[in-house]
């Protein structure tokens, strides 16, 4: 009985030790992301160098974070070298969040093939809920930019209807259809959804105004004057543009 009790105490001690290690790693990651997101790259890089000498999972994650940082600093050739290393890593060698931040950086640079590659790795893990909608937005947009409209539509259909990121994804889909000179029923339905299912926030209202403006101008270019009038009348942006034009025309002097 004594041995059983000692074994249980030892097991409990190990469990507490493991929890403590996990909490320390979580704090270290939090410290890194704080410095990275605030643009303090020297401190963040120093944190990564310490991680390289720890376990394999953190070393892999450090390589991903380093690539994102190098891209932020404009050191694209160095980032390319890092990417060639990390693209061999599987999703469970690093956190989904690190893949997500790398995908975001590639998205900002317009490297859409790599956006898709890194997002696939991010989706292989447990990406935090607060990042999922933005990740789906990036995926839709990257698919549109690489010419995969049908795949983009499938991803868009999985997004929550009234999320702001869904609104941005619909906005980009509208632009892609405009570039393809599309003005049929599918375009009309997309515009209607994009202006109806949108958060009632200032950001949502601004996006709605923009969508009504670009849709109205597209209809105008295609000779659909009634549809153009319908959307242009709803756009506060058009009123602002016309007001500024009038002010310029009747300005002092």
Structure description:
It is a single chain. The chain is an all-alpha fold and 253 residues long. It folds into two domains: 1-133, Serine Threonine Protein Phosphatase 5, Tetratricopeptide repeat; 160-253, no CATH class. It is built from 13 helices and no strands. Helix 5 packs antiparallel against helix 6.
The number of helices is: 13
Note the beta-strand portion: under 5%
Q: What is the terminal-to-terminal distance? A: 100 Å
Q: Which percent bin holds the helix content?
A: over 70%
Tally of individual domains: 2
Please name the CATH topology of the largest domain. Serine Threonine Protein Phosphatase 5, Tetratricopeptide repeat
Give the uncertain stretches in residue-range form: 1-18, 242-253
Question: What is the total tally of β strands?
Answer: 0
What structural category arises from helix and sheet content? Answer: mainly alpha
Radius of gyration, in Å, reads 24 Å
Q: According to CATH, what is the class of the largest domain?
A: Mainly Alpha
Shape: elongated
User: What is the string of helix and strand elements?
Assistant: HHHHHHHHHHHHH
CATH 2nd-level architecture of the largest domain: Alpha Horseshoe
* Biggest sheet descriptor: none
- What is the arithmetic mean of pLDDT? 74
């Amino acid at each position: 009985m004594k041995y059983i009790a000692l074994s249980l105490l030892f097991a409990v001690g190990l469990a507490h030790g493991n929890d403590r290690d996990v909490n320390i790693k979580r704090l270290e990651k939090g410290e890194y992301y704080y410095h990275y997101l605030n643009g303090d790259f020297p401190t963040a890089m120093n944190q990564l160098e310490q991680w390289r000498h720890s376990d394999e999972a953190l070393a892999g994650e450090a390589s991903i974070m380093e690539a994102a940082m190098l891209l932020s600093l404009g050191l694209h050739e160095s980032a390319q070298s890092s990417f060639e290393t990390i693209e061999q890593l599987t999703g469970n060698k690093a956190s989904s969040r690190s893949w997500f931040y790398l995908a975001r950086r590639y998205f900002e640079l317009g490297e859409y093939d790599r956006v898709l590659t890194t997002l696939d790795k991010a989706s292989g893990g447990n990406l935090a809920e607060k990042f999922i909608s933005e990740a789906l937005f990036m995926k839709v947009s990257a698919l549109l930019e690489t010419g995969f409209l049908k795949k983009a539509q499938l991803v868009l259909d999985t997004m929550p209807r009234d999320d702001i990121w869904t609104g941005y994804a619909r906005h980009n889909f509208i632009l892609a259809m405009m570039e393809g000179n599309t003005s049929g029923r599918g375009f009309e339905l997309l515009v209607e959804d994009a202006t109806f299912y949108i958060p009632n926030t200032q950001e949502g209202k601004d996006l709605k105004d923009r969508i009504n403006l670009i849709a109205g101008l597209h209809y105008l270019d295609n000779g659909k004057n009634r549809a153009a009038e319908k959307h242009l009348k709803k756009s506060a942006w058009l009123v602002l543009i016309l007001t500024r034009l009038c002010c310029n025309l009747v300005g002092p002097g």
